[in-house]
Amino acid sequence: MLTEIQSAIRDTVRDFAQATIRPHSARFEAEGGYPRALFEEMAGLGLWGMTAPEAYGGAEADSVSYALALMELAAADGALSTIVSIQNSILVSGLLKDGSEEQKARFLPDLIGGRTIGAFALTESDAGSDASAVRTRAVKVDGGWRITGAKQFITSGKIGGLVMIIAVTDPDAGKKGLSAFIVPTDRPGYAVDKVEHKMGQGASDTCALRFDDMFVEDDLLIGQPGQGYRIALANLETGRIGIAAQCVGMAQAALEIAVAYAKDRKSFGKAIIEHQAVGFRLADLATRLEAARQLVLSAAAMKDSGQPALTQASMAKLFASEAAEAVVSGAMQTLGGYGYLEEFGIAKIYRDVRVCQIYEGTSDIQRMVIARSL
């Protein structure tokens, strides 16, 4: 059962997203981005710092409320919910957990206010699921570090004004040789090599980044040298709950389209939902979707209670991402040929939801995490 506050947050975000975001989702995709004015409106609802303290401008909500908000955003626009998830789950959360007081004061207000969008630069061309294979180097110099290397598949790499970089500071220490830096992108040595052309989530840029002997001051190191792997892993716990919530939201939107169509479309003298083949399909889809929703909310509630939730977060992401693809595909099937047309909305949702089985840890990685916990 949700609390009154949780229900109110869900309903407020739903009303905003359905009125302000969903009607323009196709246009945002065609234009490859979002107006900054929208980010400012979202900041007014606390969406860029859902669980952050009010002292930094955050909404100070719990993880369940955050998951519910992401579901509603994703139901309106999958790509936008990805940007919001990274901002909350990795940038804001990472600074709150491990950032210095100076870093928090310097960066959190603009992140939470939607004035700065953040990116998370961990993945490389040969280092995705295996973080220990990171090759980007940070070499200690007088007053700071020199970072050289390249990152791949970085969300918001183009629009981001701030990037959290995971780099090798001790090449002989394996995972313990990784460190995390929080770096403004408006400095010499930061370059966007390529903006990728993707199957879906076209309004959210995904980039290849390059760092050419980029100088980073000492006060931009997060935590201590060697803590980068732990920082990245801790943030991925929240991130995977966020991705799972996105999946539920996108699948919900597709299912609603399918149910409405099935109640309206007539065949052999009655609505097609009254034909057992269609009705049973929708019943199965609704059941899988609800199971995914409850798994997400359970993982979020565990996090709120202070319990370690990495395994549950992986379960939620694994199940919700695979269930979402099945739900959206089944919804498309219900509409027949119309489901394959862009104007009915399900085609876009399918393109947007498919990546959820890939980013922030593939389904194979989630199974590995779960298996190790057994």
Short description:
With 374 residues, this protein is of the alpha+beta class. Helices cover 51% and strands 16% of the residues.
Q: Work out the strand percent.
A: 15-25%
Fill in the CATH topology of the largest domain.
Butyryl-CoA Dehydrogenase, subunit A, domain 3
Order of helices and strands: HHHHHHEEEEEEEEHEEHHHH
Round the Cα radius of gyration to an integer and report it: 21 Å
Mean pLDDT: 97
By secondary-structure content and strand pairing, the structural class works out as: alpha+beta
Strand order of the largest sheet: 1-4-5-8
Q: State the distance separating the first and last CA atoms.
A: 28 Å
Number of structural units classed as domains: 3
CATH H-level name of the largest domain... which superfamily?
Answer: Butyryl-CoA Dehydrogenase, subunit A, domain 3
| Biggest β-sheet description | 4 strands, mixed
Q: How many beta-strand elements? A: 10
Unreliable stretches (pLDDT < 50, length at least 5) are none
Envelope shape: elongated
Count the DSSP helices. Answer: 11
Helix proportion: 40-55%
Query: Which CATH class of the largest domain is shown?
Result: Mainly Alpha
CATH arch. level architecture of the largest domain: Up-down Bundle
What report would you give on this structure?
- With 374 residues, the chain is of the alpha+beta class.
- The protein folds into three domains: 4-117, Butyryl-Coa Dehydrogenase, subunit A, domain 1, CATH 1.10.540; 119-226, Butyryl-CoA Dehydrogenase, subunit A, domain 2 (Beta Barrel), CATH 2.40.110.10; 230-373, Up-down Bundle (Butyryl-CoA Dehydrogenase, subunit A, domain 3).
- It is built from eleven helices and ten strands.
- The protein has helices at residues 4-21, 25-31, 36-44, 63-76, 78-98, 101-112, 228-264, 276-304, 310-335, 346-353, 363-373; strands spanning 118-121, 137-141, 144-155, 162-168, 178-184, 190-195, 206-217, 221-222, 266-267, 270-271.
- It has a four-stranded mixed β-sheet.
- A hairpin with a 2-residue loop joins strand 2 (137-141) and strand 3 (144-155).
- The mean pLDDT is 97.
